[in-house]
Amino acid sequence: MKYFYVCSGCDKHFDITPDLMVCPQCSQAQREDEPLRGILEVAFEGELPRDFDPLDFLPVERQYFPPIPVGNTPLWAPQRLRAKYGFPNLFLKDDTANPTGSLKDRASYLVAAFARKHQIRDIVLASTGNAGSSMAGVGAAAGLHITLFLPKSAPPAKMVQALQYGAKLIRVDGNYDLAYDQSMAYSHEKGGLSRNTAYNPLTIEGKKTVALEIFKQLQQVRQTPDYVFVSVGDGVILGGVYKGFRDVVKAGLLEKVPTIYAVQAEGSSAIFRAIHNKGQFGMPVSSTTIADSISVDIPRNGYYACKQILEHQGRSILVSDEQIIQAQKELATESGLFAEPAGATAFAGFLKARTELPADANVVLIITGSGLKDIANAMKGIAVPE
Ligand SMILES: *Cc1c(COP(=O)(O)O)cnc(C)c1O
Q1: How many domains would you assign to the chain?
Q2: In what order do the strands lie in the sheet with 145-151?
Q3: In-domain check, residue 259
Q4: β partners of residue 39
Q5: Cα(232) to centroid(ligand 1), Å
Q6: pLDDT one-digit tens code per residue, 1-50
Q7: Which terminus of the chain faces fewer neighbouring Cβ atoms within 10 Å, N or C?
């Protein structure tokens, strides 16, 4: 298999090298307060075997991946939820089962492998919490030095994780967007490979493995996915999910990309607003949602995410914080899967959109992060006895 970058803006081709992050031409039009322009996408040429292993369908060879079991997460068949809502083919893709407790490990895993292949020791990133704890954990397995810019408002568990894994932590007095800017300035000045989400194209490519696994897990029971629900912040998971299904379609193993529901919080809805504004992003709006992992003012992968949604007739929907809190509690109580608020957001989206879906459809909810990562917000959905 041969891999190369294609610019999602101008279709130009590039070799995959550590110093290339965004398209040199398209990124010149970059304004400060908008999503990234010139996002590079990994393209492939070659035959994909029917029984492929997702790890062999990535642009870094298998031997460079660090010894930590990322991915291969279970696909649950939640009997009680199925019965309650009358969806006999409802599935939960449990990405809380990743080593650091979130789907972010898929991106960190590929970035770590790429760094090892190119003998890079230092990785720099900004995070709302999970990308940082993930890169720190996967980096620990790989023997990499991680420098992390984290807003002071990040849930303590995510910060503690990163420190336990041995990352160098810079606490930022401001939001994620400020942490992002500071991390970019730092890596430009001091060097190190940036793992900033969307900016490093391998973050999108790494996250595609969740779609490859869903495809394979349903293939085992002779099914294909009809609807997939994804929670959306920067839109990198969404982009990765589309990329994974598109790759399997391109390889001739799947007929069509499923209908994807991009679920955002009402208080962090930039992609939803852009979808209803011909793909244009207006001035950033300050985000407020209890789901910290999807709280972003400027979704870094916004243009790419909108393009995917529009080209594949995806849906963009919003849920309130109240709906997220209720969905988190209900998911835990009725299935046994305890997710953080952003992790339960896909379920909240399903509850809102389910009347639009045929009851016999194969519906997959991607549960992106563990409930233990944010106890403070989980307290809002329960009553603690005296
Ligand atoms: C990062 C994250 C998301 C959103 O992913 P984006 O790529 O930013 O859209 C959703 N849920 C959890 C738990 C996350 O950590």
Answers
A1: 1
A2: 168-172, 145-151, 122-126, 193-194
A3: yes
A4: 22
A5: 6
A6: 999 999 999 999 999 999 999 999 999 999 999 999 999 999 999 999 99
A7: C
